[in-house]
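ok trying this again, last paste got cut off
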Amino acid sequence: MATLREIRRRIAGVKNTEKITKAMKMVAAAKLRRAQSAVVSARPYSRKIGELMKHLATSPDFGENRLVVKRDISKVAIIAVTADRGFCGAFNSNIIKATVELIQREYAHLDALGRVNLFTVGKKGYDFFSRRKFNIAGNYSGIFHDLTFPVARNLVSDIVKGYMNGDYDRVDIVYNEFKSAIQQRLVIEQFLPIPTDELMLEKKHAEVNYIYEPDRASIVEALIPKHLEYQVWRILLESNAAAEGARMAAMDNASENAFELIQTLSLQYNKARQGAITKELLEVVSGAEALTASGS
């Protein structure tokens, strides 16, 4: 059984941990507010550029673009978007698990030939995949400390360059979409070639007709790269907000667990202290009775 001193030390240690988790929760909450604001601000532009893509989906120039034309798949790239730091529950492990399952389910034959490349966004994903000898085509760690649009532009530039050079025939992206402070949705999407089936389906329900100047071909050529850049930018913002929400929830749970453990240890300490006092009283009474008996 633990001594009173050991229990006091454990209580002090748990209290220090509780202070740290509460502080981390407050920091995550502040970062979440900024990240959530950035996501909300980005959505109107994202919706509008999406509308333009839907209207242009029926254009012959759109279907002939090299970033849209489907290829026979012999090499694949996957973008795995994790966080740079931990302490956010299952946020990172869910992305890693989903990426590994995607490779095993869809591209096992290509992986056996070494034709599956990974672009890791976030330090946690890079640490996991690099240790297990996956083919890392690009690493973007430490970007969430100061997340800016040029980061998304550089990432898209590297991916598009490899795609145009024939380094891979399809690109998928795996990330956590921000739903609320306590909820994220795991998403696996095709990034390249740009999927047109959904655009064509939604085009049937479109009501606005645009007049394009100078012409559709020029608009398509300029819009597709911007669409890809902004899609990645939105995904990075979504993932950043989701990570801070997950971290805030994880630290809140840790603080509650620490509080419950402190209560349990305090009860254990009080019981042990009461037992020690009772034992001392019994020893005093027994000693007094022994003295009385010897005197008589």
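PB: full thing came through this time. The two ends are 40 Å apart (CA to CA).
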